Amino acid sequence: ISSVPTIRRLPSYLHIIEAAQKEGKDFISGTVIAEELELEPIQVRKDLAITGISGKPRIGFPVAELLDAITKFLDWHHTHRAILVGAGNLGTALAGYAEFNRHGMSILAAFDSDSRKQGTRINGVEVFPLEKIGEKVKELEIELAVLTVPSPYAQETTEVLLAAGIKAIWNFTNIKLKVPKGIIVQKEDLSSGYAVLSVKIARNRN
Amino acid sequence: ISSVPTIRRLPSYLHIIEAAQKEGKDFISGTVIAEELELEPIQVRKDLAITGISGKPRIGFPVAELLDAITKFLDWHHTHRAILVGAGNLGTALAGYAEFNRHGMSILAAFDSDSRKQGTRINGVEVFPLEKIGEKVKELEIELAVLTVPSPYAQETTEVLLAAGIKAIWNFTNIKLKVPKGIIVQKEDLSSGYAVLSVKIARNRN
Ligand SMILES: NC(=O)c1ccc[n+]([C@@H]2O[C@H](COP(=O)([O-])OP(=O)(O)OC[C@H]3O[C@@H](n4cnc5c(N)ncnc54)[C@H](O)[C@@H]3O)[C@@H](O)[C@H]2O)c1
Ligand SMILES: NC(=O)c1ccc[n+]([C@@H]2O[C@H](COP(=O)([O-])OP(=O)(O)OC[C@H]3O[C@@H](n4cnc5c(N)ncnc54)[C@H](O)[C@@H]3O)[C@@H](O)[C@H]2O)c1
Questions:
Q1: A123 CA distance to ligand 2 centroid (A)?
Q2: Position B2 pLDDT exceeds 90
């Protein structure tokens, strides 16, 4: 997979270029993007090169073409149909995060073992009992599951998801999931962001 | 700031080395860490070099020393005293995330404009009205604020935090915050993780 750090930066470039498009700009320079995000201009140019679009000296990158190329590179022109398992605080916040919808991730159903949550909606997404996962994954042609259950239930919930035919899991629990070859697991841990913040605070102190 | 991608990987190294320590191991090899995280061994060795601890060929890195060096590098041997503003779904999930406590981030108070939330607790953290921010930041010697309000309120809430003497803001909103020089702002956007996941899904499809 090409550089993960580059891919992680692309959504913030997208924000800035979309804003430039709304202002009616036809071109945008790598330096303008770099200043907005406090990055080095060389870093931005290297990152944007990955999309195949090149900028012209003194004019910059064509806005519409660049937006299209980044969106295609991220596969965000396809809708990724998702379910969410664990309709708690984190799950509810993710179901309500408008950016995901804008970038093509559609959370179409949620699941929770707590009978009090079943039949309710979290930010508009209906919550079903776990027994319905197999049926809903087929009916809604789901490819991705967002896992926000408490860590002790991570592996057993994953077995249910695999049996239902899920091919990719976005894992917010602390458990390293055991999955067969070919299944995509992406771990997400906000401790990574906190690590960067802590180092910045320490540098500032000294 | 040294390489952000390296710093982001350190918490997951910490997990693995802590597990090795619990199993009574005195040394751990970069290759074992790399296999567990599906990274290149050379990447892990380059990252660990940042902590000043070097491994010995065929023996590996000394577990206790490495843990200490990574923790010190991340400034996680200091407690970072924090408040949280916006006691909604995301704020509540962050207040309840045990990893933060383990890594020295202590959320000591929360604030919310909704009077129904004031006086309640979110995962054990008391929720106060916004008017109390100044008083609590002084009383509790707070250095960091976690911002999880709806985006339209991001800048005005930031003004209140700056007036209270906050020096660092972990920003979960979509707004680029205008702050004076010297104030640390760290933006967090889960769209970055979703970007990496989308690219993995697209590569798998082709
Ligand atoms: N990766 C991160 O950065 C990060 C940040 C915050 C929280 N978390 C993790 O996310 C998870 C959820 O956190 P939260 O704050 O939303 O907790 P929560 O308690 O609010 O939500 C958990 C939900 O899962 C449900 N549940 C329990 N067992 C289940 C099962 N077997 N199958 C389906 N649903 C089940 C519960 O009924 C509850 O609704 C936890 O594992 C937490 O550690 C991760
Ligand atoms: N960065 C990310 O990856 C990410 C992911 C999910 C949500 N979010 C963002 O986090 C924020 C919170 O999301 P949520 O799901 O918890 O929403 P939520 O509606 O559950 O919580 C928002 C809370 O803020 C409170 N609030 C409103 N105005 C306020 C003000 N002026 N001062 C103090 N508190 C105020 C509300 O009363 C509510 O309790 C939103 O901006 C959302 O876009 C970011």
A1: 13
A2: no
**Domains of chain A, residue spans:** 4-73, 80-191
**Chains A–B, number of C-beta pairs less than 8 Å apart:** 172
CATH code 3.40.50.720 for B80-191? yes
Q: Please tell me the distance from the alpha carbon of residue B161 to that of residue B167, in angstroms, as a whole number.
A: 9
Residue A159 near ligand 1, beta carbon < 6 Å: no
**Does B83 sit in the ligand 2 pocket, CB within 6 Å?**
no
Fold for A4-73, please state it: Arc Repressor Mutant, subunit A (1.10.10)
Q: Does A124 reach chain B within 8 Å, measured CB to CB?
A: no
Which amino acid type is present at position A71?
A: T
Q: Rounded to whole angstroms, how far apart are CA atoms A153 and A163?
A: 16
Separation of alpha carbons A175 and B23, rounded Å: 17
Task: Quickly list H helices, A74-190.
Answer: 89-95, 98-102, 133-139, 154-163
The CA distance from A98 to A96, in Å, is: 6
A178: contact with B, CB 8 A cutoff: no
- Per the model's pLDDT, the better-predicted residue between A1 and A38 turns out to be A38
Residue of A99, A141, A191, A199 best to disrupt the B interface, most CBs of B under 10 A:
A191
pLDDT tens-digit readout, A54-99: 888 889 999 999 999 999 999 999 999 999 999 999 999 999 999 9
pLDDT-based confidence at residue B206 (cuts at 50, 70, 90): confident
Ligand 1: does its nearest atom lie under 6 Å from the Cβ of A170?
Answer: no
Do B170 and A196 count as a contact with CB atoms less than 8 A apart? Answer: no
Residue B57 in this model has a pLDDT that exceeds 90: no
Amino acid at B134: G
B77-107 pLDDT, tens per residue?
999 999 999 999 999 999 999 999 999 999 9
